[in-house]
Design brief:
426 residues, Aldehyde Dehydrogenase, Chain A, domain 1, Aldehyde Dehydrogenase, Chain A, domain 2, 2 domains, 4-stranded parallel sheet
Amino acid sequence: MTTDTLNPPITDTDALIADMGVRARTAAKRLAVATTTEKAAALRAAAQQLRGEAPAILAANAHDMDAGRANGLSAAMLDRLRLDTARLNGIADAVEAVAALPDPVGAEIDRSTRPNGIELARVRVPLGVIGIIYESRPNVTADAAALGLMSSNAVILRGGSEAIHSNRAIHAALVAGLAESGLPTDAIQLVPTQDRAAVGALLRAQGLIDIIIPRGGKGLVARVQDEARVPVLAHLDGICHTYIDGAADAEIAVALAVNAKMRRTGICGATETILIDRAYQGPRAIIDALITAGCEVRGDKAIAAVSPHVTLADASDWDSEYLDAIVSIAQVDGIDGALAHIDRHSSRHTDAIVTEDRVIAGRFLAEVDSAIVMHNASTQFADGGEFGLGAEIGIATGRLHARGPVALEGLTTYKWLVRGTGQVRP
């Protein structure tokens, strides 16, 4: 493939996005009345196409990986970009898992009867057309498409240039599954250019796109929030904390600290800062285990005094999303010190406590204002699949509409159904 065929010249990006939006809205109307059986069949067909096209998808990804190395992508970015047989099978499995989930569309949230006999009900309905702008992770193409389809939303996808070959190969497989099932292929569209002007056109597409979901670094999210003229469901950075309380089990503390940081360092649920209660007796074991696992440790003065292998942290470390084998560690004065540190530095994504004291755990769960708060579990579980949601379109860190892993329910809104028997208002 040549660069020109992959990134064809677009003279009018506003017209391109407008045309995609009109086609997406037509597709969304069809999806709004599609049955659960139809949508599930389309997703199963798409998953089968992903498996059948594995050689082509992996070859496309190898092209992206070569380009990424040549362009100096970081190890974390390359890890997000990389596909292999196991990861591609996992993507197909996630699509099938979404097909097996309860369909939220039409589900009744609540019902009541007014004193005058009017019956009220709230039922879930699709958002409509969703624009999704994301970087470097080709699995988002399939996850977003699957969640959009099962929640009866049409999606317009704009992936990053780092994954251009991978995204197009995955998109082609998904569209083939839609065509096989008889649902409109315009329900899943991929912006055919990497021209940055197309992003601006998406952000200005009022009346055609109902919501924008950015999934990427601070620069992308900041641009979307600054320029969007349609609602935004933001996925911010993951400055996640694990607090080791004085009453933590030592074996559990070491295992969770290492897993939370090192299982996959390039995901947003990776712990970036570990807080250790001054009353905890085993900080050296945690530090040594992290170093043995290949992690660079940056600590405050108290932690640096524990081990000669610790680099002294500076002020920026407490606000850093490393997405790498680096962790910052600070000693704090119990639960109050941990809560104060998290309040100052957390991105409100995921924060965890390790303790056997249920009273202390209860305080942490109640007082930490993050989308996900955990007790005695690795922050790496901050994932829609692990929450039983099949997949996720992102982890929302705000407070409106949806929070935490955004999956099927988060891609719906509701409408009121009012049923009367001829009542008139006095």
